[in-house]
Every structure is written in C-alpha cells, then in structure tokens.
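Pasting as-is:
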Amino acid sequence: MSFKNVPIPAAAEAAGMTKLVFSEDFETEMAIDFSGEGKPGYSFYADRPYGGTTLTPEECRIEDSVLYFKPIKCASAIGLGSYSKAGRTGFTMHYGYAEARIRAKQPTGEYNGVPAFWGIGLKDFLGQNWTHCGELDILEIVVPHTDKDKKIYTGTLHNHYRSGERTEQGRYKTVFASSSVVATGYEDKFDFLDDEWHTYAALWEPGHIAWYLDGKLMHSARFAEGEIPQYYYRDDPTPVKRLQEVYPNVEEIVWPGAHTIMNEEEEVIILGCNYNWPMEVDWVRIWNK
C-alpha cells in the first residue's frame, strides 16, 4: 500500500475527508496477496468469497504501475477484495470518499460479469448470518439495452434483506431491495463512456451517498429511519420520480428506512470484471476524516 502526496478531491475536502486511509498504485509486490491464505499487509487479496477460486498473477497482471485485470473463472463481479476471507485481515470502509482510475473497453464476447468497483457488507463477505446487508456500487459499466455496441456508467445503492424463507437447498432466499437511482439511464437518458481513463468515485456519509465521474456529481441518495429514501439526479434539488412511476412494469421494493443499514455497515472494497470484459486499474484511493 503506497501513500503518496496526492491532491485531495474537491468533494472529499468539502466533506472534511482529508485523510488518505487507503492508497494503492500497483507499484509494489504488496499490492496483491496471491497466496490464498490472507497474509496481512497487502492492499488486495486474491482469495474470494462465495466459493470462488483464488485468482492468479496471470489474471491480475501488474505492469508499469497498472493492474491489467482479466479473470478467467470470475463469474459475476467477485474479484479482488480489500479483505481476505481466508486470513480475516485487510481493509474495510465505514464512511469515506472512495475513488479509482479505471479504463474498460467494449466487451469482446459473451460475459457474465461487468467491470465494477464496489463494496459489500463484511458479514456477507465472510458468510456470516445477516438479515440486512448493504451494497454500494461505486461503478458498474454496463451495455445499454438501446445500443449493444456502446457502454454506460452506473452507480447504485442496494439494501439486501433475507425474508427467513429458505430454498430447497437450505439456503436463505435473498430479496434485492434497492429502489436505487443510477447515474445514467434514468428515463433512458444515457451518458455513454469512451475507451479512455476515467475516475469513478462515491462519497459515503451518514444518511447520504453521492456518486462522481471525473469529479462531476452524477447523482445522490438520502435516507433516514422511518422515511422513504430520496434520490437526486446531478445537482437538481428536486427528488427524481420513483422507479415505478417511470417504468410501471418494474417491481420495486422499498420501505421507510431502506438503506439505513449503510450507517452501520463495514464494507469490503472489491474490483471485479470478466474475461471477455477486462479492465485496467491505475490506482484506488479512499479518504476519510
């Protein structure tokens, strides 16, 4: 983990988050632990939760201070984590400003995982029992339904909960309860991405999360106990319409107090993608108070 004298992002500084608590520029051998054992002192760990195979140096090649990430057996976005399930060691985030400089070109074939920079609750990551769990997608690059030859940036906040009902295999059924606004695509108004480098970030405070692309505010969410969450597009102070109002056929699940689990959550930071949709990562930084 390399801590350099880097400028504080404007949004982080405005929120009083001026302390760099996590910084990885992929310049040293301590960037990734490939042992599968979870040795302390590394920034990211190649052992994965949910039964995923340990990633290899071929899948996470570092060259000229850039991570070239192309996992062979990475189903979905479960890739390199800032915490090791095997070693019970690493970095978790509770509030802060997380940012990464990433480049991802168009997918080259069928894929089952998109380029992503995101966080998941530590309890879920470790396979522990939970009723509510927060997921913060700082970045997901997806293909829009209107044009399969283009790609767009999205950022989403989820609140997962378990109803107590189990599947035939004995596992809990997980219900995805998000009611989340995304940075682009709302009412099919897309912001398309090119193949160049971009900085993706999210500011996480009590009851508030805001997403940024190259320093520009994209959208935000506010939530509180006993209240229906409100979502805002760009810097418009008027809350956006509920998802069901825009797309009546969408089955939206939301309730007063949704997302407040984020006020209690410790999140593991994850980089993920797919073999047919790889990505490059220049650096990852997290700021806090």
